[in-house]
């Protein structure tokens, strides 16, 4: 009996530690607060701009947790060719998140949650303007973790609330955003959209994978329905025969990237997604 009691106490202690850690990550207890200038200094040296001309539609791209550079370059070049200026935002390099171990730490939720990276979203919107890229048609595009970060940025709704780790700054806002594109975003534990909603309501295009073994197949449709029910214009398309990050599988040159989708379906999905995204962005002009 004493042994069982000790085991029970041990399990309870471990459970309590897990709850405390999860709560701390969700509330940002372990994140040092930074000013917008400090975050901009992390982002600007590693930002890639694929310029399409003065006052062209502007898209800010936020990579997934795997951060495949071939993938982001592909999208930047394709959008540029379509007459859309693309700013590729690298949330990793300035923070030293460049080794496989560090990248996996983000993918497994040990650091840089979407609630913190949401600060990159609002800072990047201001940063591109400072660099001279101004447009009346602004779109945010996020893949997986990047989609989570974009969604949390709208849930915080600066200047009414602030992403974790970002010091309040009166010049930052998401109100200028016209459209949001979400590729198979993370919609599970720790996200804020379901509980907070979005006060600013850009049009949303959600592109999901039929057999998504990373984020699941039910959480995101539920969250998107929540947005739609609150008055948001949401368009959802689900690609058959593909898994999470199917478009990365097509364009990456990395031999280490897992290829789990049907290659024909993944290629067709990528080509269709490009057409949908360009059409969606241009629909605001």
Describe this structure in words.
By secondary structure, the protein is an alpha/beta fold. Helix 8 links the parallel strand 6 and strand 7. The chain is globular, with a radius of gyration of 19 Å. Helix 2 packs across helix 5 and helix 5 packs across helix 6. Strands 1-3-2-4-5-6-7 form a seven-stranded mixed β-sheet, sandwiched between helices. The protein has two domains: 30 residues; 249 residues, Rossmann fold (3-Layer(aba) Sandwich). The longest helix is centred in the N-terminal third of the chain and has 26 residues. The chain contains ten helices and seven strands.
Helix content: 40-55%
**N-C termini distance:** 72 Å
CATH architecture group name of the largest domain: 3-Layer(aba) Sandwich
Query: How many strand units?
Result: 7
Largest sheet geometry: 7 strands, mixed
Q: What is the CATH domain class of the largest domain?
A: Alpha Beta
User: Judging from the principal axes of the Cα atoms, what is the shape?
Assistant: globular
Poorly predicted ranges: 10-26
Structural class: alpha/beta
Q: What's the number of domains?
A: 2
- How many helices? The count is 10
Please give the order of strands in the largest beta sheet.
1-3-2-4-5-6-7
The sequence of SSEs as H and E is HHEEHEHHEHEHEHEHH
Mean pLDDT: 90
Percent strand equals: 5-15%
- Give the CATH topology of the largest domain: Rossmann fold
CATH superfamily of the largest domain: Alpha/Beta hydrolase fold, catalytic domain
The gyration radius over C-alpha positions equals 19 Å
């Amino acid at each position: 009996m004493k042994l069982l009691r000790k085991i029970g106490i041990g399990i309870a202690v471990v459970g309590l530690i897990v709850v405390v850690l999860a709560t701390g990550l969700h509330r940002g207890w372990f994140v040092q607060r930074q000013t917008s200038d400090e975050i901009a200094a992390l982002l600007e040296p590693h930002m890639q701009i694929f310029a399409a001309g003065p006052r062209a539609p502007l898209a800010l791209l936020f990579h997934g947790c795997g951060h495949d550079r071939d993938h982001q370059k592909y999208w930047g070049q394709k959008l540029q060719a379509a007459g859309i200026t693309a700013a590729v935002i690298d949330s990793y390099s300035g923070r030293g998140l460049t080794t496989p171990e560090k990248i996996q730490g983000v993918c497994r939720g040990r650091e840089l949650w979407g609630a913190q990276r949401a600060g990159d979203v609002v800072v990047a919107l201001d940063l591109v303007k400072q660099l001279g890229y101004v447009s009346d048609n602004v779109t945010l595009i996020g893949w997986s973790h990047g989609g989570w970060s974009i969604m949390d940025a709208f849930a915080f709704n600066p200047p009414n609330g602030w992403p974790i780790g970002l010091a309040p700054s009166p010049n930052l806002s998401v109100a200028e955003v016209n459209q949001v594109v979400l590729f198979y975003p993370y919609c599970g534990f720790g996200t804020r959209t379901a509980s907070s909603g979005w006060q600013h309501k850009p049009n949303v295009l959600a592109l999901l994978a039929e057999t998504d073994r990373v984020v699941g197949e039910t959480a995101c449709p539920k969250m998107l329905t929540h947005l739609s029910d609150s008055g948001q214009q949401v368009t959802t398309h689900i690609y058959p025969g593909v898994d999470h990050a199917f478009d990365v599988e097509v364009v990456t040159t990395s031999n280490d990237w897992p290829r789990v989708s049907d290659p024909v379906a993944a290629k067709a999905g990528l080509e269709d997604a490009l057409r949908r995204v360009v059409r969606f962005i241009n629909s605001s002009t």
